[in-house]
Design brief:
The structure holds two protein chains of two kinds. By secondary structure, chain A is mainly alpha-helical. Chain A is built from two helices and no strands. The longest helix of chain A has 30 residues. Chain A starts with a helix and ends in a 9-residue tail after the last helix. Chain B is mostly helical. In chain B, the strands form two sheets. Chain B has a two-stranded antiparallel ribbon. In chain B, strands 3-4 form a two-stranded antiparallel ribbon. The chains are: A mainly alpha, B mainly alpha.
Chain lengths: 73, 344
């Protein structure tokens, strides 16, 4: 019975480890990265997406309002 | 010993659960999302950011800037400094229907979404403040009450923000339906990164738009910019201008030409349908056009379909396919015809 519980725990852990490894890969982190690094990277990603969307909205409003129409040098 | 192991295991699990809860929230997932859902959300966010970065670079370069930052700063220099607007405390709470209504958001998600909505509310309040000296205090107070009324009764944030936009249009002196702005810069940004439109025709349409100074109403512009299919809509808008030999196509004209164009391309079969290679939507397809498809050829195909519709009973037959292919052949017999032949 103890063996069975142990096996279950190890199976769960193995699955979790695989998920953690996949997450690091998606985030472009090295495999040695720990939980804190992963969390910081997800936070950075969220903030960058939000910043981009805010910028895009500001630029869109500036164009729509006719403040900027020119091209750069 | 066994108890020690069990205690230690439970503590580790608890710490892991806390970490996962925080991560799930930051990834924008609901409290019931499992590890798979979080991984998919992070993947989607990562893809989104990559697409945004590419889009930024394309837009900046199409306007003569090497970096997005330079372009953004140049624009912001021209925008008058925003009036700091303090939101009344009445806006602190999420409208009840956001959570209980059709959008069925969790309270946490609704609170996060509310921060975005605040920006739009501030914008409307700034407009009201701007026009208060001309319109009077009573008018301003009425507008503020109207805004709050719409906010508290709103059922979802997107619809409310759209209403806010309409409210600012009501305030603005310029009617968005009759205010025309330059279309080229906007169209170029969207069209140059589209890979599923006929490249030669895109180039020709942009040249035409630049030479003729094609313009678009603010209303149409807002519609296209907020669309998920902005590149296609720009293509149709510029094509309508080209075919109608105008520089200010109306919404009705665009609708009519788009329908005609779709029928014409469908009969001509100048494109191949391939997988869009989107892992999240495996059945999604996209069109790949022959590189030689030009505006003149699309024009010929459209004119032929129009003639056939006018003369016949409107039922498309194989004879229509031959007529359209022949009409196009009279313009050019390049690669497009090879594809058309293959697809028949």
């Amino acid at each position: 019975m103890n063996d069975l519980i142990g096996q279950e725990v190890f199976d769960d852990l193995e699955e979790l480890e695989q998920w953690f490894a996949d997450l690091k890969q998606v985030l472009g982190l090295r495999q040695e990265a720990d939980k804190e690094e992963v969390f910081d990277e997800v936070l950075r990603l969220t903030q960058e997406v939000a910043t981009y969307e805010a910028n895009r909205s500001e630029v869109g409003s500036a164009f729509t309002a006719g403040y900027f129409m020119g091209a750069g040098q | 010993m066994k108890k020690l192991f069990a205690d230690s295991y439970l503590k580790t699990q608890e710490r892991l659960e806390d970490w996962f809860d925080d991560l799930r929230e930051k990834a924008g997932c609901g409290p019931n999302a499992d590890t798979g859902a979080v991984l998919r959300a992070v993947e989607a966010m990562s893809r989104k950011l990559q697409a945004y970065e590419e889009q930024q670079t394309t837009v900046a370069r199409s306007r003569g800037y090497r970096y997005w930052g330079d372009y953004y700063n140049a624009i912001m220099k021209e925008v008058p400094e925003a009036v700091p607007i303090e939101l009344p405390t009445a806006y602190n709470e999420v409208p009840a229907a956001w959570v209980t209504g059709q959008s069925r958001m969790t309270l946490r998600k609704a609170e996060k979404r509310l921060l975005e909505t605040y920006k739009v509310i501030r914008k409307v309040l700034a407009y009201i403040l701007d026009y208060e000296p001309d319109e009077g205090k009573e008018w301003a107070e009425e507008m503020r009450n109207e805004l709050y009324d719409r906010f508290s009764k709103s059922t979802d944030p997107d619809a409310f923000e759209k209403e806010c936009l309409e409210l600012t249009y009501e305030i603005e002196e310029d009617d968005p339906e009759t205010t025309w702005v330059d279309a080229v810069e906007w169209a170029r940004g969207a069209l140059e990164k589209a890979s599923d439109l006929p490249l030669l025709a895109v180039e020709e349409l942009l040249t035409y738009a630049e030479d003729e100074g094609v313009e678009i109403t603010k209303q149409q512009l807002d519609f296209i910019v907020s669309s998920d299919y902005a590149a296609y809509r720009w293509f149709d808008y510029l094509l309508t201008n080209y075919l109608r030999k105008t520089n200010r196509a109306t919404t009705e004209e665009v609708k009519a030409i788009t329908e005609l164009k779709e029928d014409a391309l469908d009969l001509w079969k100048c494109y191949e349908v391939v997988s869009a290679c989107d892992p999240s939507r495996p059945t999604l397809t996209k069109r790949v056009y022959a590189p030689s498809v030009s505006v003149a050829m699309i024009d010929a195909a459209c004119k032929e379909v129009y003639r056939l519709k006018e003369e016949g009973d409107g039922v498309m037959t194989d004879a229509w396919v031959d007529a359209v292919v022949e009409a196009v052949a009279s313009v050019n017999d390049g690669n497009a015809l090879v594809i058309a032949e293959k697809n028949r």
